[in-house]
């Protein structure tokens, strides 16, 4: 109808008005009348073919994959292949992993399996962001770094050349990081927080959010929700970080079960909080599901579905398929990323001497 209306306007122009400077230039160049009408029509028609700034887009959430990479690696491979294949069709902007990438952080075999799946995303040009879970820690033989194998497979240098990469923490480590992308006419900032983040990491995250006021923020961490609300780690993240910033939009986590809650931040902003974890020690199918979030700024909806690429199935339970309506999406003009320096871990207290007890900070 809009195209038809535009055509009618061109076919039946109003009485001529004083020509604008640009239109006068066209006439002096010999462009006018029917030719000018056809040019206007083509421009109007072409504008309808361009993607809308507020077009819907998707974010895929990978739940705890610890059992998948240990026992059923083919299901995570199938998920990542499906994401890469459907990146353009579904307008998938990024993939978020909630942590517990592996079952035992000391086993190279599991990290290799997980790495293989992430390489499928990389080959498909799909940005992904990782959260570190409790199972991802472990001290391999001869190592003192409890994230040695994670850092071996996913060092900062694997991400810092990507346009979406913002920064990392602590210095030299990829345990926490932040990333930026633009979708639906909105600037997005994803801040990934290590499992049970210490205060200096939460302070760093606050600086990152403060430096990006023209971004909607997604916090990604492993342990945040439980069946009755936020867990201990979640309460710390909420009270020391999330609640204080009016541009915090969503928190994504894993660790156990699948639940979702909505809260209001201190500045009146709605914060959507979602936990996804379908792991099962004996079922390949239950380890094969991912969560697909569709964000539609024009319709003001946030829709969540589960999908198993390996088995081509969806979960229909209320906590696996739901929709938020009247969602406030705040559009932004494109804004640059701001680099926030990686903090150094605080100095450890000296070991007690002569049997004295250490004083807790």
State the main characteristics.
alpha/beta; Purple Acid Phosphatase, chain A, domain 2; seven-stranded mixed sheet; 9 helices; globular; disordered N terminus
What does this structure look like?
- The relative contact order is 0.13.
- Helix 1 packs antiparallel against helix 3 and helix 5 runs parallel beside helix 6.
- The protein is globular, with a radius of gyration of 25 Å.
- The chain has one domain: Purple Acid Phosphatase, chain A, domain 2 (4-Layer Sandwich).
- The chain has a 7-stranded mixed β-sheet with strand order 4-5-6-7-10-12-11, covered by helices on one side. It has a 6-stranded mixed β-sheet with strand order 3-2-1-13-14-15.
- The chain is 26% helix and 23% strand.
- It has 361 residues and is of the alpha/beta class.
